[in-house]
Structure formats: structure tokens, C-alpha cells
């Protein structure tokens, strides 16, 4: 407190950049957000959040009103404004390979560097293959005026959708990869708001200061570990099923060991979303390039276990419906299936690489007449999977169904009344793709229940 705070910009106002820009204004920084998408910038300046994230709406309105937060499509303005520029653009999986597509990073950094007129720190936040920070540094030295003293640093983020506001305001660690004391000091100042908030709440936020490569690796290592934890418990689910065990009890029991921990041990349909699946693939591709491919071979298995969960749901559905499986998979023609859930997890409208939507499409491909409902993901799902029939609510989705599948653990689905739903369906058969229903209650209501 007391020390001057740097002015910060966030390049790319997607999920990551928009959340950061808004939360940093909330922390008291003067913030400018940038995007090439004029519609998105207009929306944000009008106080509308383009994504569904609890709490963000209110923070956007408050900080726009306070005059600490603005959004612009003008890179010259951004270059003039910022002491610290955070690169938050997307790094999707390449269309032609497992690696990451860095074209948005390249475009943002090049354009910023060309417009810089004063000293500044450029900090990468996007999830990238290790080595990208060095490459960004070269881009900057190629395109920025040499006498300004522009430096590069890397500081990965660990936002979880649905908890993103808290993850920015109250992170469990700050990681920075730097090459100079000046960069280190700037990044400390750029996180001072976070440290100050922690102090008022009697917490501490550890700051790990390291080199570029390690900072980049921390992010993918963390996501690889989380993905591995989920696939581990799903592998145990397969073994439990073969042996007649119960994976939910197993997870609970092993999770009491603090070295293992009970979080991220929920067996079910597996992981999806914009991060874990693409990150473990890009990580493998990069390790291969570095000659360390063997070290990450297990991540290939993590991916396979995860994808196997999707076909497993289709198989369980076929079993319950008494359908035979041919060489092309089960034939579900003539059946009607009600699917509850499209998003990759609850409390988001995100359907990117959503296991639920993938399963719904597989059921459709197998010949079933699929009726689907999701509390938030309908519009996005419709765009990705137009072949499905979209219904306005739970009751409509399950009406006359021969079987229902619960594929995202929304509270509305967990709390649904199996007795009432039983009156609507043609057959009381349920596949619980997230092990989120009270199986005894559903059995009592006359449902044939299958969990994962
Ligand atoms: C993930 C990480 O959790 C964040 O720390 C990271 O910053 C972020 O990716 C990112 O790289 O940006 P997110 O994609 O929001 O966050 O989603 P998670 O909450 O991690 O869930 C991922 C998937 O795993 C979901 O489909 C969820 O249903 C599934 N999951 C999660 C399980 O199947 N079982 C579990 O026990 C936990």
C-alpha cells in the first residue's frame, strides 16, 4: 500500500482476459482491456459480460462506473496506457495436429510491440508450449523500438470456470518467470492488490519466482496432474465394475489420506472443457519435440481412459435397453433417450469438448431419438450439435423417453424427483453419467439405475 500501482492491460477479452481485467479493476488497478472483436468490446463497455461466470456481471458494472475499467480495440491506446501488458489470447489445439496454435499470441504480441512508445513489461498468461516465452521475447525485440527497455515475463493462471472471480482475487499461488529484478518488481507491484487483499483476510499468497521455462511448465504440469487424477479414479471405476466394487466408496476411502486428498476424485464421464483435454495433448506434442516424449507417454493413456468413459455410457444405455452391439457399436434405432446436461460441468454455459454433448451425439449416431436439456448451455450446444432435439426443460426432455441419461451434475438434475419423472417416461431406465444421483431413491421409485 502507498506504492504506486502499475497501469495494466489485458490483451484478449475471452474467458481469461475478461475475467482478469474486471477483477483487477476490482482490486483497484486502472485497467484497459483489448480485443480485435469490436462487438465484444462494445458489449463489455456497455456492462455486459460475454461469458457466464458467477459474480462477474456485478463487478463489471461497478468498475465501469468507478472509471477504473475500459475496453478498446485500439492497440495504440493500449500501448500508450499500460505499464504491464498481460497476454490473455486463446491458444487452441491446432486443426492439423495435437500441438497448440500460437497465431493469436503472435498477432497480439507483434501488434503491441510495434505500437509501444514507452517502457513496459509484457507478461504471457495464456497456456502455451514451453519455450513460447523465449519466442515472444524474440518477437518483441524484432518489432518493438530497441531503446525503450521493453521486457518479457511469464505468469500462468489457474482459473477454474465457475470459480474464476475468486481464483483471480484469491489465488492459491502466484507464479512468475522473469529474467530481471526490474521485471520481478513490476510483477510484484502488479500483484500487490492480491497480496493486500490476502493480508486483510489473514491469508498469505505464496509467490514462486522462477525462470521462463519453469513458469510455462507449471501450468501444464498442474493440468496434467488434475487430468491424471480424474483418469486414475475412472480407471479404478473400470476395475471396480469388473470386480463388483463401488468406486464412490473407494474414492472416499483413499481420499482421507491427505497425501492423496479427496478432491478431483469424482469418477464419471471424465474431463472435458477448453483446457484439460487440449492441454494434455499439447504437452505431449511439445515433450516429443523436446526429445522427452517418453516421460509423458502415460498422458496418452490418461486421454484414452477419459475418452473410454463416453463410449461406456452408450454401452450402458444399450445394455439397459436390451440392445445388441454389432461391429459398428450398439444399435439404438427406434429408441427415445432424454439427455440431461450438455455443458462440460455444472454452473457454466461452456460446451467446448463437453463429454455430455459428445455422448448425446454418440447416442444420436447410434440411432436414438435424443431430446436434450441443459440449464445454461442450450444456445452453445445447438450451434455444435444441431442434430439433437432441444427441449425447454427437464420434463420435456424426459417425456416418453425409453431411457434417460444424466450427463452433467447440475443441482436441478441431482434434486429432480424420480417419482414425478417416472410418470413422464415410457421406461424407467436411467444412466447416471456423473454418479450424482441418489441411486437408492431412484431404485425405490422403480427405476433401473446404472452408474459409472
Ligand atoms: C481446469 C483446471 O481445474 C484449472 O485449474 C485450470 O486453470 C483451467 O483448467 C485452465 O487451464 O484454464 P476447468 O477447465 O474450468 O479448469 O474445469 P475443471 O473444474 O478442472 O473440470 C474439468 C473437467 O473435469 C470437467 O469436465 C469435470 O466434470 C471433470 N471432473 C472434475 C471430473 O470428471 N471429476 C472430478 O473429480 C473433477
How would you state the average pLDDT, rounded?
A: 96
CATH architectural label of the largest domain: 3-Layer(aba) Sandwich
Percent of sequence in beta strands: 5-15%
Oligomer: single chain
* CATH superfamily grouping of the largest domain: NAD(P)-binding Rossmann-like Domain
Gyration radius, rounded: 24 Å
Protein name: UDP-glucose 6-dehydrogenase
Keywords: NAD, Oxidoreductase
Pfam family, one: UDPG_MGDP_dh_N
Function: Catalyzes the conversion of UDP-glucose into UDP-glucuronate, one of the precursors of teichuronic acid.
Give the arrangement of secondary structure elements.
Elements: E1 8-11, H1 15-26, E2 31-34, H2 38-45, H3 56-65, E3 69-72, H4 75-81, E4 84-87, H5 103-115, E5 121-124, H6 132-143, E6 151-154, H7 164-169, E7 174-177, H8 181-190, H9 192-200, E8 207-210, H10 212-243, H11 247-255, H12 276-289, H13 297-320, E9 325-326, E10 329-330, E11 336-340, H14 355-365, E12 369-373, H15 378-384, E13 389-390, H16 394-398, E14 403-406, H17 411-414, H18 418-422, E15 429-432, H19 439-444, E16 448-451
Parallel strand pairs: 1-2, 1-4, 2-3, 4-5, 5-6, 7-8, 11-12, 11-14, 12-13, 14-15, 15-16
Antiparallel strand pairs: 9-10
Helix pairs in contact: 1-3, 4-5, 5-6, 10-11, 10-12, 10-13, 12-13, 13-14
The chain binds uridine-5'-diphosphate-glucuronic acid.
Amino acid at each position: 500500500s502507498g506504492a504506486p500501482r502499475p497501469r495494466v492491460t489485458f490483451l484478449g477479452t475471452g474467458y481469461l482476459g475478461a475475467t482478469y481485467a474486471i477483477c483487477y479493476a476490482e482490486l483497484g488497478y486502472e485497467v484497459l482491456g483489448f480485443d480485435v472483436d469490436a462487438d465484444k468490446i462494445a458489449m463489455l463497455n456497455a456492462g455486459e459480460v460475454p461469458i457466464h461466470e458467477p459474480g462477474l456481471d456485478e463487478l463489471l458494472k461497478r468498475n465501469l462506473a468507478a472509471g477504473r475499467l475500459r475496453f478498446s480495440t485500439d492497440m495504440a491506446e493500449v500501448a500508450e496506457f499500460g505499464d504491464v501488458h498481460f497476454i490473455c489470447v486463446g491458444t487452441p489445439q491446432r486443426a492439423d495436429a495435437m500441438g497448440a496454435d500460437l497465431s493469436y499470441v503472435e498477432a497480439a504480441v507483434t501488434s503491441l510491440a510495434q505500437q509501444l512508445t514507452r517502457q513496459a513489461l509484457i507478461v504471457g498468461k495464456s497456456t502455451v508450449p514451453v519455450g513460447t516465452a523465449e519466442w515472444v521475447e524474440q518477437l518483441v525485440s524484432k518489432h518493438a523500438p530497441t531503446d525503450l527497455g521493453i521486457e518479457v515475463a511469464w505468469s500462468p493462471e489457474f482459473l477454474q470456470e465457475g470459480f474464476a472471480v475468486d481464483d483471480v482475487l484469491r489465488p492459491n499461488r502466484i507464479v512468475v518467470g522473469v529474467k530481471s529484478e526490474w521485471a520481478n518488481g513490476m510483477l510484484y507491484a502488479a500483484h500487490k492488490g492480491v497480496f493486500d487483499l490476502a493480508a486483510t483476510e489473514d491469508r498469505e499468497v505464496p509467490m514462486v519466482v522462477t525462470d521462463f521455462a519453469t513458469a510455462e511448465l507449471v501450468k501444464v504440469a498442474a493440468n496434467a496432474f488434475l487430468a491424471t487424477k480424474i483418469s486414475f479414479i475412472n480407471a479404478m471405476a473400470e476395475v471396480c465394475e469388473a470386480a463388483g466394487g463401488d468406486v464412490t466408496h473407494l474414492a472416499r476411502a483413499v481420499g482421507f489420506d491427505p497425501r492423496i486428498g479427496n478432491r478431483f476424485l469424482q469418477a464419471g464421464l471424465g474431463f472435458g472443457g477448453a483446457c484439460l483435454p487440449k492441454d494434455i495433448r499439447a504437452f505431449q506434442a511439445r515433450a516429443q519435440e523436446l526429445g522427452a516424449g517418453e516421460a509423458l507417454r502415460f498422458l496418452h493413456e490418461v486421454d484414452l481412459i477419459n475418452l473410454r468413459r463416453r463410449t461406456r455410457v452408450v454401452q450402458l444405455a444399450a445394455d439397459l435397453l436390451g440392445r445388441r452391439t454389432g461391429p459398428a457399436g450398439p444399435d439404438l434405432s427406434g429408441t427415445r433417450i432424454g439427455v440431461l446436461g450438455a455443458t462440460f460441468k455444472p454452473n457454466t454455459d461452456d460446451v467446448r469438448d463437453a463429454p455430455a454433448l459428445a455422448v448425446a451425439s454418440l447416442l444420436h449416431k447410434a440411432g436414438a431419438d435424443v431430446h436434450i436439456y441443459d440449464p445454461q448451455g442450450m444456445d452453445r450446444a445447438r450451434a455444435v450439435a444441431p442434430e439433437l432435439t432441444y427441449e425447454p426443460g427437464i420434463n420435456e426432455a424426459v417425456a416418453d423417453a425409453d431411457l434417460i441419461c444424466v450427463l452433467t451434475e447440475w443441482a436441478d438434475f441431482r434434486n429432480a424427483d424420480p417419482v414425478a419423472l417416472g410418470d413422464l417416461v415410457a421406461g424407467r431406465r436411467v444412466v447416471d453419467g456423473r454418479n450424482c444421483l441418489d441411486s437408492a431413491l431412484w431404485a425405490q421409485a422403480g427405476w433401473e439405475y446404472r452408474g459409472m
